[in-house]
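Journal club side-thread
Mid-discussion, someone asked how the predicted structure for our own chain would compare to the paper's figures. Pasting it here so we can look after the session.
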Amino acid sequence: MQNTKNLNEDLLGTALVDYVNNNYTEDLKTYSSLDEEAAMPLPYLFRTFEEMPMLEQKALELSKGSILDIGCGAGSHSLWLQNTNHKVTALDTSPGAIAVCKKRGIAHCVQSEFLTLATGTYDTLLLLMNGIGIAGKLKHLPDYLTHFKKLLKPGGKVLLDSSDIIYMFDQDEDGGYWTPGNVDYYGEVSFTFSYKNQIGPKFDWLYLDFNTLAYYAETHGFTCELLAEGEHYDYLAKLTVS
């Protein structure tokens, strides 16, 4: 695939390239539709296994056979898997991220949108750091579930983590929550990156509570299992074809 993203469209990749080339001077910033501004520390994206949260460690330890690391970013998960003798392919839409993965020594890297990936089948599909967020909106989740089936080998599994962000909204006396009225589901959030005085395009991201994930997964022919819960309303789930 040709590198068709300009600098502003690939601020994440630009920042990763700067870091790996020892040009680290500042972190990425994110701005969300929830009126939140946050820093994304670049060193954290290059973390070792020991520095990863428990949910990520558990997911990596459960990854078997041929593995597709979807939304690989700087490749820290892929690198650990490769170094522990797993067959892993690092996948990302960002040209900069893929360049960094190659520079870090990851043998199999693919720059592509997940839904257009048409080659290869895998024993494990891995989506970490709220990886299912790439669906963007709840209405797009069935497209991803359908594509999971196309890429899974018989007996294969999807390992993903996400977060239930309902805690971020005010609760009334009756126990209900004041969620945004301009989205179909409260976990639909839009983000913008900024880096070195440049602002990237807005993109959608999806945070899924486990019950909603399980409902959609089971509706589309998967068994959904809750494997572990983290300390910040996050969880690790496994999907297998029913």
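Post-session note: The chain has six helices and twelve strands.
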